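TA notes, week 10

Several of you asked for a full example with nothing omitted. So below is the full record: structure tokens for the whole chain, then the designed sequence directly under it. When grading your own attempts, check the secondary structure regions first.
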């Protein structure tokens, strides 16, 4: 009977020591403060976005993968850029179509 009690006590002491060591090494797992609304650690350049800008984006990691707010933000920035480019191409397409002949060749430059 005494052997079982000693075994349990020694096991509890070792478990407590391992727990204390893990707290010292890895911290107490405190919750990080909330990020301010509209703020993200992910960055993209101001103005036009190039392909290399998107290729270099890195997202913060969370317990289940990437931080969803950062991914949503980056996708929204890229979507806006694509919309702006398509709008410019649409305007340029109207101008190009007006400058073409009915046979598909461009009209000669006036001058």
């Amino acid at each position: 009977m005494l052997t079982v009690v000693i075994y349990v006590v020694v096991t509890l002491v070792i478990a407590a020591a391992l727990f204390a060591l893990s707290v010292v090494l890895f911290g107490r797992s405190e919750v990080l403060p909330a990020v301010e609304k509209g703020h993200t650690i992910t960055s993209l350049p101001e103005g036009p976005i190039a392909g290399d800008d998107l290729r270099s984006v890195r997202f913060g990691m969370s317990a289940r993968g990437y931080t969803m707010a950062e991914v949503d933000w980056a996708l929204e920035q890229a979507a806006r850029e694509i919309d702006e480019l398509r709008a410019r191409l649409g305007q340029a397409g109207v101008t190009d179509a007006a400058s073409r002949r009915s046979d598909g060749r461009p009209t000669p430059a006036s001058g």
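The chain is about 55% helix and 5% strand. Use that as a sanity check on your answer.
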